[in-house]
Each structure stands twice: as structure tokens, then as C-alpha cells.
Amino acid sequence: MSSIWYDKGMAKRQQLDVFAALRDIFPPTLRRDPLYWRRLVLGLVIIILIITQLFTFEKFPSITSTWQFPGGVVVAAILAGLIPLLEVLSLPFLLSMQLSRSLWRVSQGSLVCVSTMWCGISLWCTLTQPLSESGLLGATLPLVNGWWTVSFSLLLLMAALVVVLQPHDYER
Q: Residue 7 has what pLDDT?
């Protein structure tokens, strides 16, 4: 018959090794600057929007055409391609990727631009087409426009402006 010996010191060392491994995954700047965490959380929100929009991308132009923007089907097709493109272009800034200064600025501009677009789209749809599909989550999760979409897009824009305008150490 064998007995299992439990060493409390060994268990504590293993636990510390797990925490050290998790800590080493993230760069040191992420641990000391809350701005990185704000970007990461906003990046996760944008990633959820992108995934749900691109999961049923073939239906996204039909959603944008229900918004009835002036310009008709042409504007709807442009918006269906431009919105996910700008959301993807904003990810390098939000995920704190190592980029040149010019690409960093393009990514920041894409974030502000797509947030502003969502504010304008949600306000337009709420005032002119109140029962149209919002398109925030694509056709994956159909949501009806309302003042909640305006509120969500305004919060998205405010969060984007906070992370873009907050001063940070640019070490590139």
C-alpha cells in the first residue's frame, strides 16, 4: 500500500509558477499602465462586433440597405464593406501591437471613424427607420434599432475618444 505525501511548500511553489507563467504572457508595460487594459477591453468589444458581422457577412449588405440612406444600394454596399474594414483596421491600436507611428495613427483614426459612423448610423436609423435592423451584431443576432443603439454607439465613441486622446508613452 502506498501513501501519497502532500508537501505544502511544493504546492505553493507550483501555484507561484502558474502565476509567474500567466504574468510572463503579458508584456511588462501592460502590467503597469491601465491604458493598455482600457484598449484591450475596447478591443474585445470591437472583436465581438467584427466576428458577429463577418459570421453572416453575405447578409450584411441587405441589412445596410434597410437603413435607407440616400444613395440607395450603392451606399449600402459601401457601408457593408467599410464598417468591418475599419473595425479590423482599429485592432492593431487596441491590441497594442508594435507598429510604425503612421500605422498607429491609421489604426487610431479607424477606431474613431468607425465609432463615429456607428453613432451616425444608429441615430439616423432610430429617427427615420425605427423598426429596422441595427446591424451592430450583423445578421448573426438581429437587433431592432432604438435609443439603446444610440446609447451603445455613443458609449463606444466616448470609449474610443478616451483611449485615443489619453496621453501615452510611444516607445516605437
A: 52
Angle at 10 between CA 7 and CA 15, to 5 degrees: 125
State how far the alpha carbon of 23 is from the alpha carbons of 26, 32, 167, 168, in Å.
6, 12, 25, 22
Residue 32 has pLDDT above 90, yes or no: no
Q: Of the candidates 152, 147, 120, which has an alpha carbon nearest to the alpha carbon of residue 137?
A: 152
Degrees, nearest 5: CA angle 47-53-56: 135
Query: Do residues 138 and 56 make contact, with C-beta atoms less than 8 angstroms apart?
Result: yes
Q: Which residues of 142-161 are buried (b: 16+ CB within 10 A; e: fewer)?
A: eeebeeebbebbeebbebbe
